[in-house]
């Protein structure tokens, strides 16, 4: 799977204001900004992203995904 394919899957299932992916085809590192993360704890945010991937996590198409998740307000305050 390519970074563009993985990014497309995440963005199709989650309304992202920003999504950046790096990786080697099996191990991925993502930074994701979404209003859908408002009021959610980090584990719930990660579960929401994993839900967009469905069986791809279980069939080893995506072996590992590390992520940083932000709400738009968190992302904006981080940039200042």
Q: What's a concise summary of this model?
A:
The protein has 80 residues and is of the alpha+beta class.
Helical residues, percent = 25-40%
Which residues sit in consecutive blocks of at least 5 with pLDDT less than 50? Answer: none
- SSE series: HEEHEH
The proportion of residues in beta strands is 25-35%
Under CATH at level 1, the class stands as Alpha Beta
For the largest sheet, list the strands in their spatial order: 1-2-3
Estimate the global geometry from the Cα principal axes: globular
For the report, how would you describe the main beta sheet? 3 strands, mixed
Domain module count: 1
Distance between the ends: 34 Å
**How many E-type strands?**
3
Figure out the total of helices.
Answer: 3
Instruction: Provide mean pLDDT, rounded.
Output: 92
Category by helix and strand content: alpha+beta
CATH topology, by name, is: GMP Synthetase, Chain A, domain 3
Tell me the name of the CATH homologous superfamily: BolA-like
Output the radius of gyration: 12 Å
Describe this structure in words.
With 80 residues, the chain is α+β, with helices and mostly antiparallel strands. The protein has a single domain, classed as BolA-like (GMP Synthetase, Chain A, domain 3, 2-Layer Sandwich). Helix content is 39%, strand content 25%. It has a three-stranded mixed β-sheet. Strand 2, helix 2 and strand 3 form a beta-alpha-beta unit. Helix 1 crosses helix 2. The longest helix has 12 residues. The chain is globular, with a radius of gyration of 12 Å. It starts with a helix and ends with a helix.
């Amino acid at each position: 799977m390519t970074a563009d394919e993985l990014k497309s899957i995440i963005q199709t299932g989650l309304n992202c204001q920003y999504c950046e992916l790096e990786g080697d085809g099996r191990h991925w590192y993502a930074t994701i900004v979404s209003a859908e993360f408002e009021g959610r704890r980090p584990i719930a945010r990660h579960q929401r992203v994993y839900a967009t991937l469905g069986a791809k996590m279980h069939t080893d198409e995506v072996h590992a995904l590390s992520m940083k998740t932000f709400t738009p307000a968190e992302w904006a305050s981080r940039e200042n």
